[in-house]
Amino acid sequence: MRRAGWAVVRGSRGDRGMSTAEYAVGTIAAASFAAVLFKIVTSGSVSGELQQLIGRALDGSF
């Protein structure tokens, strides 16, 4: 009976965590999202708006 309990515990270990393929897909997705976000943030209009926002925040009175 004790061995049957360990078999159940050992059998459930296969579903823990991600496999190497899942890590690869997750890494590619994260890198793609970062590249798109970088392009958006460094575009002219967004960059100008961010600079204005930061300038207004630094010029504000305390």
Please render the helix and strand layout as text:
Blueprint: H1 2-11, H2 20-41, H3 44-59
Question: How would you describe the overall organization of this protein?
Answer:
It is a single chain. The protein is an all-alpha fold and 62 residues long. The chain is 77% helix and 0% strand. The chain is built from three helices and no strands. It has helices at residues 2-11, 20-41, 44-59. The termini are far apart. The mean pLDDT is 80.
Q: Give a count of the beta strands, DSSP E runs of length 2 or more.
A: 0
Shape: elongated
Structural class: mainly alpha
| Low-confidence parts | none
N- and C-termini, Cα separation = 71 Å
Mean pLDDT: 80
The ordered H/E elements are HHH
What's the main sheet like?
none
Binned strand content: under 5%
Number of helices: 3
Helix content: over 70%
Roughly how many Å is the radius of gyration?
25 Å
